[in-house]
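Reopening this one. Same input as before:
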Amino acid sequence: MPSKIYYEIVENRKSQFNPFQSFDHREFICGWGAAGINIFLTFPVYKMIFRQMLHGIKIRSAFNQLHNEGIAYLYRGIGPPLLQKTLSLSVMFGVYDGVKKPAIDVYNMNQYSAKCFAGLVSGTFEAVLMPFERIQTILADSYYHEKYKNTYHAFRMIYTEFGLKELYRGLVPILLRNGPSNAVFFILREEAQKLPQKEGVLYANMQQFVSGAVIGAFTSSIFYPLNVVKVVIQSKIGGKYDNVLVVFKEIYKTRDRSIRNVYKGLNMNCLRAAISWGIMNSAYENLRKVIY
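Same output, byte for byte:
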């Protein structure tokens, strides 16, 4: 009898559930703002990491490349990540929250299953914005400095010559990265929020920054090889669409069959991820306090 009543309650919740009402626009706004603050502060570091990923070079060589190109090129390509990351983080936080709540309250999933599911869904939705990441990769590569003037020019030329499919080159490694990394990030983030917190604004901000930094660096390091594969795939325009495994084997082969060389740039990537996610986590929590 109790199980029948419970079943009826659950079914009643499902019948009354409106999926659009589960999404809170404030979560989207907080994610959008946090990403914007972060991009302006960390973009130069990203470019050094990108050069290491693409060419398998040391940090000093990557720094010298940017130094020789000059300040005029330092923020070249910021348009796509600014658009992509602000929208992406907005979707990441907004969709995650909108999926997790009904998964627990309406469909009675356990906490961790709901978080994993919500993370996978939000990561998949983020992949729709992939063309921005694609153009960012092109503009950050010095090989294309003379060919594409700016974000709009690169979008227009690639779309006109190769079509929409070319803008989604590298979709598979992004899907393999986004969903699982979101799930790991949110689970660890919410576990960190359960830790004892000291009173005071300064302590609260420090804790948010440190937890975001540690989780971001950890998550980014786990999925780093997928980012290397993604960068190599997206640095090409036109031609054959290579399989992720084939590209990884080719990277491994051309980098002296050394896993260590595949991970070239990991140290700077950890630093960038720590700073980025520390800033974003802290900014997100502060924006929530203002908006809610």
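So the earlier flakiness isn't reproducible anymore. For the record, The mean pLDDT is 89.
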